[in-house]
Specification:
Radius of gyration: 17 Å
Order of helices and strands: HHHH
Mean pLDDT: 85
Helix content: 40-55%
Shape: globular
Structural class: mainly alpha
Oligomer: single chain
Low-confidence stretches: none
């Protein structure tokens, strides 16, 4: 169904996301945009009661798994070096991992 424009552009929810909008012909893609990928969100970890140890465990897991920059850099490198570009199987797997990494603070 219809979605807000920030969400259409990049899945944004206006929580600090930055956008660049232009009508400059040299910066407009020569073909239509591809359909967005659909990722299955990881289930949220819900606790009936939050203890201090739960908070500590979450922070430790977050720090241990904070690989968003590495995943993004790897995706960029493979997209530029593989013949299939962003459609190569490595990039598609990295895109899914990137989605999970972005959602980790919300899902645990």
């Amino acid at each position: 169904g219809p979605r807000p424009h920030p969400n259409e552009m990049s899945g944004g929810d206006l929580d600090g996301d930055q956008y660049f909008v232009t009508w400059h012909p040299d910066l407009i893609f020569p073909k239509p945009n591809e359909e967005p990928m659909h990722f299955i969100s990881q289930p949220k970890r819900e606790l009936s009661k939050v203890e201090t140890t739960d908070i500590i465990d979450f922070i430790v897991e977050y720090i241990k798994n904070d690989r968003l920059g590495q995943i993004a850099n790897a995706h960029l490198a493979f997209a530029h070096t593989k013949k299939e570009g962003i459609y190569c199987s490595i990039c598609l797997r990295l895109a899914a991992k990137h989605s999970d990494a972005v959602d980790f603070p919300k899902t645990g």
